[in-house]
Amino acid sequence: MKKSLRAGMALTSLVFAAGLIFSGCLAISDEESEEAETTSEISAGSINRAAVSYSGTSGILGSITSATPTGSGLTGVKAQGWLNSAYIVWTGSSSSYTVTCDGQAVSSYLTRKIGGQWRCDIPGLAKGNHTIKVTSGSSYLSATVSVASHDRTGFAFYGTITPGAYKADGTLKDNAVVLYVNESTKDKVSLDVVTSSKGATTTCTGLQNILYAFKKGYDNRPLCVRLIGKVTDFATMDNGDIMISGSSASKPLSNGLTIEGIGSDATAYGWGIRIKNAQYVEISNIGFMMIDSAEGDNVSLQQSNKNVWVHNCDMFYGTPGGDADQKKGDGSLDCKKSTYVTFSYNHFWDSGKCNLLGLSEGTTSDLYITYHHNWYDHSDSRHPRCRYYSAHIYNNYYDGNSKYGAGACLGSSLFMESNYFRNCKYPMMISMQGTDLFAGTSSKNSANSTFSKEAGGMIKAYNNTMTGTYYFIPYGGTYSGADTTSDFDAYVVSSKSATVPSSVVSLSGSNKYNNFDTSSIMYSYTADSPEDAVKNVKKYAGRIEGGDFTYTFPDSADKSYDVDTTLKSKLENYTGATTAYNEASSSESSGGSSSGSSSSGESSGSSSGSSSGSSSGSTSSGSSSSGSSSGSSSTSTVTSAKLTADSYSTGTISSDTVYGDFTLLATSKKNVKISSSSATYGSTSYKNAWDLQGGADGVKPSYRAFKVTLAKGDILKAVVNANASRTLQLSNGSKVVSSTSVGTSASLFSYNATSAGTYYLYSKSSSIRVFEITKTGSSSSGSSSGSSSGSSSGSSGSSSGESSGSSSGSSSSLSISASKTQTGVGTRSRLNEISSINQIKNAISVSNATQLKAALNEVVSGGAIVLAKGTYSFSETITISSSNNGSSSAMKYIIAAPGTSAEDIILDFSSQSLADFNRGIHLFGSYWHFYGLTIKGAGDNGLYVSGKNNIIENCIFVENRDSGLQIAREKSSLSNMSDWPSNNLILNCTSYNNADKTGENADGFACKLTAGNGNVFDGCISYSNSDDGWDLYAKEATGSIGVVTIKNCVAFNNGKLTTGSSYGNGDMNGFKLGGSNGKVPTAHIVSNCIAFANGHDGFTDNGNGGSLSLTNCTSYNNAKVNFNFYRTNKGNFTGLVTGSPNNSDKYGTSSVASTVSKTLYYTNSKYYWISSATSVTNGQKNVGTQVNAPSFKSTSLPTANSSVHKNLRNADGTVKLGDMLKPNDSTYSGASFSTQAASILGVSLKTN
User: Fold this and answer.
1) Catalytic one among 230, 1072, 1216, 1222?
2) N or C: more exposed end of the chain, with fewer CB within 10 A?
3) Which fold has domain 68-147?
4) Residue 274, φ and ψ in degrees, nearest 5
């Protein structure tokens, strides 16, 4: 429908031109031309159409929740989850507090006082639930909140590396260094930066000097700069800004750099950030106020940048510039000569010039940027003003813009999608045509041109909403005095996938739209509706919860581009919200904290606890510690600082050198060398060491010593050795507090600080080598003797994550055995021997969903969450993050209360909607043991396992809307099999009635697409699922999966639910062992398994093509083929029994034989007995000796109902089938199930 656009015409809630929604009215108003800017001829470019990948995720993932902290001695005000962060607010009389998140120590710099309340913000959190605790003396508080994930969408995420110092899940990248910058530390913050190709380091003080050192390009550690409170100009700056730069365009800074604000009040006051020659940069959560630098922009991408993400910032006025249009400062967020950029969720407060995009690039090739979910709050112009670029501009809120929205010049291509324009005078303009020249009148005049009469670009528009007062001329519409096929503002489409014809060109320059948005360069995303975009922008744009600055614009601001004097006065008088800092920070260095994958983003390295007994296995990080310690508590610890000589090049240190929390004391005459020296401690090998080269000068040494500040309860550890027997000493500056003998083998020195203070670690007389030194802080209180030990320990444990051996001491484990202890079939663990919760030392009892979610972050290694009988209802996914792990010597347990069964403990996710990723439980962590649970009704998989060395035992998966249990990688960026889930044991579990919408995906058990080696299914039953009982499918795009072992398992009735419902799209096999027609083979192993009454094949290679191995299996009365292996190369089949076949069994391909022995084979409507090993190819007949059809002791098959888990299992959980389908003729083997487990799996649960 077309309508004439004339002054005074009312358009109310009218859909006008496909893809745009209009309401309000039109009015005549003159527009002043903006300043002239540099123009350039366009060098024609083309879209890069090669296959691309993106590291980000679409949309804000997860949910955020708040809670009121509870405890004793402190008053909880609020705890709040946010985007990859959370905070807690409380009141108390102390000036020093300790905060932990999920048991991990949080830097004291993150705690400060705002008004009369204390607040701690915790960045670097993955999506999911997190428990925050505050302590001061005997007073404490805690709360659990849910955290969502940032919307990592757009061109900045082009490639496989996420911009900044954070991973795609929101936790810090490995080996990241964290700097804390507040008004008092800004010129003191220091860091040792690698500044030469030989590994020499320079101690740099001040943020800009540190960044200048990184510019050299020798230090590749990710760097995270955390800005706290209001920070004014630094002593050292670059023309009044902080400059992020590499040495040149060919040698960009690419270590991964984030500068982020902490909390809602982080403010860069008076200075901006400039970026050039840099890649993988993130700027976030900062308020930029009153910038007065020489350049004048809040944030500016100047040249030769890639993969830059600027998000969730508040852009305020700068100081006035010299030009007439700089009364509100210069650019807010400009981008020139840079590509693969995303600007998202930023809030522009009455900015004069928001986003200049492009300047003198001279080409339209390989320039990509995304603007989404930005709030242009009464800002005047440039949203953006675009030259040359391909720009995706979606879900932005244009809120009262007095000049114009987006402008296209010089061959640029803009895709304007699902934006909301409220009183935006000219929503979209193309230079030198349409509204740019008509300016709301009926006559065309080049004097009206806003864009310095540059040649035009092109705009594609889809699903935008416009309300209030505005002018807009769509292509092909009707406008008085205009031919709207040449004088138009945008080409409006009714489908986002529609392309703009090449015949549509700009009036000036004849530039075409390049249709980048429908090419292979485009990323995956889901746009909100314009109305929902407004809601999300108002909720999330700018700093956390909108920041600490509030202001309401008057209605008159919609049409005025004058400076708002009231707003400016508030900005000029802004003092900041923080009034005091946590006193604990006085003992903590603001520079160089190393970090890893902990939930709080603060810590690095292995996690270790105070274990008693004489031996310990390796921790989840690969480093192991043991020794004698005493104390009544079972205290888990978290590494707050870790230093390894392998991270540094060999050389001589001749002056005091700061390594984060540690200072190495040295002089020119009493120097310390980093030397090449190999050693192995536990499972960790070292190549370099600090050689102390001799004794220090007393108990308060000035050379050849490590100096470190310890709090009470902190644990100091060092891996050391020497050429001969030496004495290592630790002093507190007044006396020696611990010493130990060091020999030629690497050993561990450990000390638990009994009081806070400064400590010195040094050799008493001769050379000692230090390979690694760590400082850890206790996450729970308890007495400790402060003893040290020099013993070492190795690693042990089976592929399932359980250790073998025995333990002793005050905190004992159930005795461990992995050997065969009795006759029978299958395996069970010793968990079913627990008769009382009082037997468990570190038990957390839960009886509702809220308690369970909180307990996931509180349970310690070797401890258990014990679930009372009942139904636990959830509407969202439970995530156990990859940083939440047990260890090989102390797993984490989630178990049914003693005396209950799996049918009694129901985790019910039925209220979830049917959707991909709406899984019941994401198990991304490692070394967890689930026992005796039912997982029901999830919107996708019931349990999705992506971690390693987990055990899932005696669990039921029912009525989930994809596979009951699936093993696959956590995220698509993990492309190496070594990073995929491995060594998981699924033991004595049952899965049934799992069905997806089409019926072609929901298996009972799936270990497919991206699973690593060593995954095992033992004693499991899968029946009445819409697709397959087991699915080991692999596809060419991701390659072969690891070898899966399936043993002692049963599959029946798949393809038809217990209700009788069936799905025509389901594959309906019992055991489906691969896929992709031989292109991704894997030699899976199947033994002692049985398949019957499935809707298609009993056992099938499904095109695996690998050397499959089947031993002692029975397949009976399946609808198609009992054993279907006609695409198997060099398979090995022995002891197989086929019964009541409907079609011929098939072994080997038509050209490559498989070996078959001791097998009853059906082909050509006859049975054959193949006694000795025989090569068989597909279609081969009359192999072996013809025999009669077999008879069985029992052909009474079980009914597919909800009682299978109870009726078909022994008391120990193993499968119980009795004589069912057992051949009468003992010559034939097949599957056999006895009355008890043949082996018992030990556990590492700590018991009283």
Assistant:
1) 1072
2) N
3) Immunoglobulin-like (2.60.40)
4) -115, 145
Residue 1040, both tokens: 């072969």
Which pLDDT belongs to residue 21? Answer: 55
Phi, psi (degrees; rounded to nearest 5) at 937: 75, 15
The span from the CA of 1109 to the CA of 1079, in Å, is: 18
Cβ atoms < 10 Å from Cβ of 904: 17
C-alpha of 1176 from chain center: 48
DSSP, collapsed to helix, strand or coil, labels residue 575 as coil
The Cα 625–Cα 537 span in angstroms is 49
pLDDT digits (tens, 9 = 90+) for 205-251: 999 999 999 999 999 999 999 999 999 999 999 999 999 999 999 99
Tens of pLDDT, residue by residue over 505-514, are: 999 999 999 9
Report, as an integer, the average pLDDT of 1147-1173: 90
Indicate if 641-776 has the same CATH topology as 163-349. no
Cβ(645)–Cβ(689) under 8 Å? Answer: yes
Q: Which residues contact 1243 (CB under 8 A, 6 or more apart)?
A: 802, 813, 814, 816, 829, 830, 831, 891, 893, 929
DSSP 8-state class, residue 1039: B
Classify domain 163-349 at the CATH topology level. Answer: Pectate Lyase C-like (2.160.20)
Q: Tell which wins on pLDDT, 244 or 809.
A: 244
Nearest to 279 by CA among 318, 241, 308, 248: 308
Paired tokens of 806: 């025995």
Residue 57, pLDDT score: 73
Please write the tens of the pLDDT for every residue from 965-1000: 999 999 888 988 989 999 999 999 999 999 998 888
Report the alpha-carbon distance of residue 313 to residue 299 in Å, rounded: 10
Instruction: Report the alpha-carbon distance of residue 484 to residue 472 in Å, rounded.
Output: 11
% of the chain at pLDDT higher than 70: 87
Q: pTM of this prediction?
A: 0.53
Q: Which amino acid is at 1086?
A: V
**What is the C-alpha separation between 916 and 918, in angstroms, rounded?**
6
What is the distance, to the nearest Å, from the Cα of residue 293 to the centroid of all Cα atoms in its chain?
A: 37
1123-1125 and 1146-1147 strand pairing = parallel
| Whether 308 contacts 278, CB under 8 Å | yes
> 1183: which 2 tokens?
């192999």
Of 884, 882, 878, 887, the residue nearest 973 (C-alpha): 882
Reported residue count of the chain is 1248
Query: Of 645, 629, 880, which Cα lies nearest the Cα of 778?
Result: 629
Cβ neighbours, 10 Å, residue 1165: 9
pLDDT tens column, 516-526: 999 999 999 99
User: Quick one: CATH architecture of 641-776?
Assistant: Sandwich (2.60)
CB-CB contact of 1213 with 951 (8 Å): no
Cα separation of 72 and 137, whole Å?
11
Residue 1072 falls in the annotated catalytic set: yes
Under DSSP, the state recorded for 820 is B
b/e map 866-892, b = 16+ CB within 10 Å: bbbeeebebebbbbbbbbbbbbbbbbb
- CA neighbor of 1242 nearest in space, from 796, 803, 620, 619: 803
Per-residue pLDDT band at 823 (split at 50, 70, 90): low
Listed by start position, the domains of the chain span 68-147, 163-349, 354-542, 641-776, 846-961
Q: Please, how many CA atoms are within 13 Å of residue 1221, restricted to the half-sphere of its CB? A: 27
Q: Give residues with Cβ within 8 angstroms of 412, minimum separation 6.
A: 357, 358, 364, 386, 387, 388, 389, 390, 391, 457, 458
Task: Identify the pLDDT of residue 813.
Answer: 42
Do 625 and 793 form a contact (C-beta atoms < 8 A)? yes
Nearest to 1137, CA basis, from 1107, 1175, 1104, 1170: 1170
